[in-house]
Write a structure and sequence with these properties.
single chain, alpha/beta, Rossmann fold, six-stranded parallel sheet, five-stranded parallel sheet, about 30% helix, about 20% strand
Amino acid sequence: MRVLILGGTGEARALAAELAARPGVEVTSSLAGRVRDPALPAGEIRIGGFGGVAGLTAYLAEQSVDALVDATHPFAATISAHAVSAADATGVPLVVLRRPGWSAAPGDRWTRVPDIVAAAASAGALPAGCLFLTTGRRDLAEFAADGTHDYLVRTVEPPDGATPPRMTLLLGRGPYTLDGEAGLMGEHGVTALVTKDSGGELTSAKLAAARDRGIGVIMVDRPPLPAGVTAVPTVAAVLDRLGYG
């Protein structure tokens, strides 16, 4: 059985490890290649794009892929849409793996917004202060017109486009601790957190730290899944779908 996993998430790596340990399964993980030093999964690895729907469709056919798993980041809407189209075109079964999103807890002060444009508008309307921005380097241009706020920006890779004019950049990759996040917010005088509803434990400490410090959060909602697609929340559920539960 040949399985192609899309995505460099922790869940994708965990799934690759499970499948690679099973006799008779050939697993290939496809990574986008946007991170210079990614954590590599078990099995075969492919780095780089496919060239749109047509390229992914051709790859599935040429490699005789038996199952396609979309385990990309919850905000990787384009590749998720391509996966649906390629699976439909080839008849290859598709399983979508999405870790559950975050839910507000008592004491949280969240403002949910539908996309990064709305997040930038909400951030720009806040009183002057320091905004902790953890939405990723590809979204920084949306905040580049805001000269009112100081921005504490944390990304995995250095940004390569427009950025907020008053920015302090931190390069880092989770997991993060509650004490570390609280200390960071205190050191920089953070007055609001702007983040995406990525879910998971690796980066959730910032939410608890914001709650403890009474800091408001602008939370960007996930893009919807393609029409007719239902995701499963765990690696175990994917294995069940593939007949390896």
